[in-house]
Protein backbone atom coordinates (compact mmCIF):
# COMPACT_ATOMS: atom_id res chain seq x y z
CA UNK A 1 0.00 0.00 0.00
CA UNK A 2 2.79 2.35 0.84
CA UNK A 3 4.46 1.74 -2.52
CA UNK A 4 1.20 2.37 -4.38
CA UNK A 5 0.65 5.62 -2.52
CA UNK A 6 4.19 6.86 -3.34
CA UNK A 7 3.78 5.89 -6.99
CA UNK A 8 0.49 7.83 -7.17
CA UNK A 9 2.09 10.93 -5.65
CA UNK A 10 5.03 10.77 -8.08
CA UNK A 11 2.63 10.46 -11.04
CA UNK A 12 0.62 13.47 -9.84
CA UNK A 13 3.81 15.57 -9.51
CA UNK A 14 4.84 14.71 -13.09
CA UNK A 15 1.39 15.74 -14.40
CA UNK A 16 1.61 19.08 -12.58
CA UNK A 17 5.07 19.85 -14.05
CA UNK A 18 3.88 18.95 -17.59
CA UNK A 19 0.82 21.18 -17.23
CA UNK A 20 2.91 24.16 -16.11
CA UNK A 21 5.39 23.71 -18.99
CA UNK A 22 2.54 23.47 -21.48
CA UNK A 23 0.97 26.68 -20.20
CA UNK A 24 4.29 28.52 -20.37
CA UNK A 25 5.12 27.26 -23.89
CA UNK A 26 1.59 27.30 -25.28
CA UNK A 27 2.57 29.84 -27.99
CA UNK A 28 6.37 29.82 -28.42
CA UNK A 29 6.18 32.57 -31.16
CA UNK A 30 4.12 34.92 -29.00
CA UNK A 31 7.16 36.74 -27.64
CA UNK A 32 8.73 37.08 -31.08
CA UNK A 33 5.52 38.42 -32.63
CA UNK A 34 4.75 40.65 -29.63
CA UNK A 35 1.33 39.03 -29.16
CA UNK A 36 -0.47 40.23 -26.05
CA UNK A 37 -2.61 37.87 -23.94
CA UNK A 38 -5.74 38.91 -25.93
CA UNK A 39 -4.10 37.68 -29.17
CA UNK A 40 -3.59 41.15 -30.69
CA UNK A 41 -0.34 41.75 -32.52
CA UNK A 42 1.59 44.79 -31.39
CA UNK A 43 3.37 46.78 -34.13
CA UNK A 44 7.05 47.55 -33.66
CA UNK A 45 7.70 51.27 -33.35
CA UNK A 46 8.73 52.77 -36.77
CA UNK A 47 12.21 54.20 -37.10
CA UNK A 48 12.04 57.98 -37.17
CA UNK A 49 13.75 59.85 -40.07
CA UNK A 50 16.86 61.68 -38.95
CA UNK A 51 16.29 65.40 -38.48
CA UNK A 52 18.68 67.64 -40.45
CA UNK A 53 20.11 70.71 -38.85
CA UNK A 54 19.63 74.07 -40.66
CA UNK A 55 23.29 74.01 -41.73
CA UNK A 56 22.98 70.50 -43.19
CA UNK A 57 19.78 71.44 -44.99
CA UNK A 58 21.43 74.51 -46.54
CA UNK A 59 24.39 72.39 -47.66
CA UNK A 60 22.03 69.88 -49.30
CA UNK A 61 20.15 72.70 -51.08
CA UNK A 62 23.45 74.16 -52.27
CA UNK A 63 24.60 70.82 -53.70
CA UNK A 64 21.26 70.39 -55.50
CA UNK A 65 21.35 73.93 -56.93
CA UNK A 66 24.96 73.51 -58.08
CA UNK A 67 24.08 70.25 -59.83
CA UNK A 68 21.16 71.91 -61.65
CA UNK A 69 23.41 74.81 -62.69
CA UNK A 70 26.07 72.49 -64.11
CA UNK A 71 23.46 70.54 -66.08
CA UNK A 72 21.90 73.73 -67.46
CA UNK A 73 25.31 75.16 -68.41
CA UNK A 74 26.22 71.93 -70.24
CA UNK A 75 22.94 71.99 -72.18
CA UNK A 76 23.41 75.65 -73.14
CA UNK A 77 27.00 75.04 -74.25
CA UNK A 78 25.87 72.16 -76.46
CA UNK A 79 23.10 74.34 -77.94
CA UNK A 80 25.56 77.18 -78.64
CA UNK A 81 28.02 74.88 -80.40
CA UNK A 82 25.29 73.28 -82.48
CA UNK A 83 23.88 76.68 -83.49
CA UNK A 84 27.30 78.02 -84.48
CA UNK A 85 27.95 74.94 -86.59
CA UNK A 86 24.60 75.28 -88.36
CA UNK A 87 25.22 78.98 -89.07
CA UNK A 88 28.67 78.25 -90.50
CA UNK A 89 27.18 75.61 -92.79
CA UNK A 90 24.44 78.03 -93.91
CA UNK A 91 27.02 80.72 -94.73
CA UNK A 92 29.02 78.26 -96.83
CA UNK A 93 25.99 77.20 -98.87
CA UNK A 94 23.99 80.47 -98.81
CA UNK A 95 24.64 81.26 -102.50
CA UNK A 96 24.35 77.68 -103.71
CA UNK A 97 20.94 78.14 -105.39
CA UNK A 98 21.94 81.39 -107.09
CA UNK A 99 25.20 79.95 -108.40
CA UNK A 100 23.42 76.85 -109.70
CA UNK A 101 20.92 79.09 -111.52
CA UNK A 102 23.77 81.11 -113.11
CA UNK A 103 25.63 78.11 -114.48
CA UNK A 104 23.53 77.95 -117.69
CA UNK A 105 24.47 81.59 -118.36
CA UNK A 106 28.12 80.67 -117.99
CA UNK A 107 27.61 77.86 -120.48
CA UNK A 108 25.99 80.31 -122.94
CA UNK A 109 28.97 82.67 -122.67
CA UNK A 110 31.39 79.85 -123.42
CA UNK A 111 29.39 78.87 -126.50
CA UNK A 112 29.24 82.51 -127.63
CA UNK A 113 33.02 82.88 -127.32
CA UNK A 114 33.56 79.77 -129.46
CA UNK A 115 31.07 81.06 -132.02
CA UNK A 116 32.84 84.41 -132.23
CA UNK A 117 36.13 82.71 -133.17
CA UNK A 118 34.70 81.60 -136.51
CA UNK A 119 31.93 84.20 -136.96
CA UNK A 120 32.03 86.33 -140.10
CA UNK A 121 28.87 88.31 -139.35
CA UNK A 122 28.68 90.56 -136.31
CA UNK A 123 24.90 90.84 -136.14
CA UNK A 124 24.22 87.22 -135.02
CA UNK A 125 26.95 87.55 -132.40
CA UNK A 126 25.39 90.74 -131.02
CA UNK A 127 21.97 89.08 -130.92
CA UNK A 128 23.43 86.09 -129.08
CA UNK A 129 25.11 88.31 -126.47
CA UNK A 130 21.86 90.26 -125.99
CA UNK A 131 19.98 87.01 -125.39
CA UNK A 132 22.53 85.94 -122.77
CA UNK A 133 22.24 89.31 -121.05
CA UNK A 134 18.45 89.06 -120.90
CA UNK A 135 18.71 85.54 -119.54
CA UNK A 136 21.10 86.73 -116.82
CA UNK A 137 18.81 89.62 -115.87
CA UNK A 138 15.82 87.29 -115.70
CA UNK A 139 17.61 84.91 -113.35
CA UNK A 140 18.80 87.70 -111.07
CA UNK A 141 15.34 89.28 -111.02
CA UNK A 142 13.85 85.96 -109.93
CA UNK A 143 16.32 86.00 -107.01
CA UNK A 144 15.06 89.41 -105.86
CA UNK A 145 17.50 91.74 -107.65
CA UNK A 146 16.07 94.99 -108.99
CA UNK A 147 17.64 97.86 -110.93
CA UNK A 148 17.27 101.39 -109.56
CA UNK A 149 15.56 103.92 -111.74
CA UNK A 150 17.50 107.09 -110.99
CA UNK A 151 17.44 109.55 -113.89
CA UNK A 152 15.23 112.54 -113.19
CA UNK A 153 14.55 111.46 -109.58
CA UNK A 154 15.43 113.65 -106.55
CA UNK A 155 18.86 112.93 -105.14
CA UNK A 156 18.62 110.52 -102.18
CA UNK A 157 21.80 109.86 -100.20
CA UNK A 158 20.29 106.59 -98.93
CA UNK A 159 20.44 105.03 -102.40
CA UNK A 160 22.56 107.40 -104.50
CA UNK A 161 26.26 108.23 -104.48
CA UNK A 162 26.93 111.66 -105.98
CA UNK A 163 30.08 111.61 -108.09
CA UNK A 164 29.83 115.23 -109.14
CA UNK A 165 27.35 118.02 -109.69
CA UNK A 166 26.79 120.15 -112.79
CA UNK A 167 24.60 123.13 -113.55
CA UNK A 168 21.09 121.81 -114.09
CA UNK A 169 20.04 121.96 -117.79
CA UNK A 170 16.59 123.09 -116.64
CA UNK A 171 15.21 124.49 -113.41
CA UNK A 172 13.14 121.36 -112.75
CA UNK A 173 16.34 119.23 -112.63
CA UNK A 174 17.95 121.16 -109.79
CA UNK A 175 18.67 118.81 -106.93
CA UNK A 176 17.82 115.82 -109.12
CA UNK A 177 19.83 113.13 -110.89
CA UNK A 178 20.94 114.42 -114.28
CA UNK A 179 22.99 111.41 -115.36
CA UNK A 180 23.81 107.90 -114.14
CA UNK A 181 27.41 106.63 -114.34
CA UNK A 182 26.85 103.25 -112.72
CA UNK A 183 23.58 101.47 -112.05
CA UNK A 184 22.42 100.83 -108.53
CA UNK A 185 20.71 97.64 -107.42
CA UNK A 186 18.29 96.56 -104.72
CA UNK A 187 18.04 93.04 -103.37
CA UNK A 188 14.64 92.44 -101.79
CA UNK A 189 14.28 96.24 -101.35
CA UNK A 190 17.69 96.56 -99.68
CA UNK A 191 20.59 98.39 -101.32
CA UNK A 192 23.32 96.07 -102.53
CA UNK A 193 25.03 98.73 -104.65
CA UNK A 194 24.57 102.49 -104.61
CA UNK A 195 23.89 104.21 -107.91
CA UNK A 196 26.73 106.55 -108.95
CA UNK A 197 25.08 109.67 -110.29
CA UNK A 198 25.58 113.25 -111.45
CA UNK A 199 23.40 115.77 -109.63
CA UNK A 200 22.05 119.01 -111.08
CA UNK A 201 22.89 122.14 -109.15
Automatic annotation (TrEMBL):
Classification via CDD domains: GrpE
Chain spans, region Disordered: 1-55
GO molecular-function term, one example from the UniProt record: unfolded protein binding
Gene Ontology process terms (BP): protein folding
Compartments, record wording: Cytoplasm
Keyword set includes Cytoplasm: yes
Keyword terms of this UniProt record: Chaperone, Cytoplasm, Stress response
Major localisation: cytoplasm
Any Pfam family the entry gives: GrpE
GO CC terms: cytoplasm
Coiled coil (UniProt feature): none
Biased composition (Low complexity): 12-27
Its biological purpose: Participates actively in the response to hyperosmotic and heat shock by preventing the aggregation of stress-denatured proteins, in association with DnaK and GrpE. It is the nucleotide exchange factor for DnaK and may function as a thermosensor. Unfolded proteins bind initially to DnaJ; upon interaction with the DnaJ-bound protein, DnaK hydrolyzes its bound ATP, resulting in the formation of a stable complex. GrpE releases ADP from DnaK; ATP binding to DnaK triggers the release of the substrate protein, thus completing the reaction cycle.
Family: Belongs to the GrpE family.
Subunit: Homodimer.
Protein name per UniProt: Protein GrpE
Source species of the chain: Mucilaginibacter agri
Gene name per UniProt: grpE
Amino acid sequence: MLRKKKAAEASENINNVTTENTEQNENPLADELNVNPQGETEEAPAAEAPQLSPEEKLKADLVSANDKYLRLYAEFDNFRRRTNKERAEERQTAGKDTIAALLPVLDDFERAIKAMETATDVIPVKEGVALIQNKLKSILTSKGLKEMDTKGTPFDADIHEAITSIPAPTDDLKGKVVDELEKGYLLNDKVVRFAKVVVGA
